[in-house]
Design goal:
The complex is a heterodimer. Helix content of chain A is 7%, strand content 33%. Chain A is mainly beta. In chain A, strands 3, 4, 5, 6, 7, 8, 9 and 10 form an eight-stranded antiparallel β-sheet that branches. In chain A, strands 1-2 form a two-stranded antiparallel sheet. Chain B has a three-stranded antiparallel β-sheet with strand order 1-2-3, with no helix packed on it. Chain B is of the alpha+beta class. The chains are: A mainly beta, B alpha+beta. At the A-B interface, strand 6, helix 2, strand 7 and strand 8 of A face helix 1 and helix 2 of B.
């Protein structure tokens, strides 16, 4: 199938690669289908692109590369919502925010990770109850070492 | 807005499947117990609002800024990761 995207132009994608968010992402409840693809091969950044909303795309990454001890507490209702029978089916991503023109000030939303069930390709954004994690966790920032 | 007064231990029901109980009060804090079906999402409003706000910001990321970011990452990776 062919989709339109604002950032990447038209793209041909395999419909079997669609990721379905039954509830959408928080703030975007009506946008339910996305595709995930690499920004490029040498860096761990991917795009989560809406397939029927050309302008809507998020940068996501593997949280464990940046926060090795990151822990997501998954509740029974989340497993049910994604029809997960075995938690090894799940992949975890975090959404990054890169302020315009200031990429070194990139932050990660550790409070609202995205879980993807690789088996049926259903996904959900969680809201973690822990106070350990925040919506704007600086990823690059150890002051003095930037640049 | 419907306003109801409840004592500790008392509940209100919303529809057939949701019950909210006042568990405890301490100063200006109220502890609530919520029983709801698994597919009803319950969140503290301010956390929910913060994630919505962050998603909206994240959605504005440009391709170019990520490429700059990618270059920084590569430089960092080749000079040894912290």
């Amino acid at each position: 199938m062919r989709i339109e995207t604002t950032r990447f132009g038209p793209m041909d994608i395999n419909a079997r690669m669609l990721i379905h968010f039954p509830d959408g992402l928080l703030g975007f409840p009506d946008v339910k289908n996305y595709i995930i693809f690499d920004h490029d091969q040498d860096a761990p950044f991917k795009w989560l692109q809406a397939t029927d909303e050309p302008a809507l795309a998020f940068v996501i990454t593997d949280p464990f590369l940046f926060v090795p001890d990151y822990q997501v507490e998954i509740e029974e209702q989340d497993l049910q919502a994604l029809s997960v029978s075995d938690s090894s089916q799940l992949s975890t991503f975090i959404i990054l925010t890169i302020p315009a023109g200031q990429p070194t000030r990139m932050t990660a939303n550790l409070k609202g990770p995205v879980l993807v069930n690789g088996e049926n390709r259903w996904a959900k954004q969680l809201v973690l109850t822990t106070s350990l994690y925040h919506t704007r966790h600086p990823l690059l920032a150890t002051p003095g070492t930037a640049g | 807005m419907l306003v109801l007064t409840r004592k500790v231990g008392e509940s209100i029901t919303i529809g057939e499947h949701i019950r909210v109980t006042v568990i405890a009060m301490k100063g200006n804090q109220v502890k609530l117990g919520i029983e709801a079906p698994a597919d009803t999402q319950v969140h503290r409003e301010e956390i929910y609002a913060r994630i919505i706000e962050e998603n909206q910001k994240a959605a504005a990321t440009s391709h170019q800024d990520l490429s700059t970011m990618r270059d920084l990452w590569r430089r960092r990776s080749t000079t040894g990761r912290a």
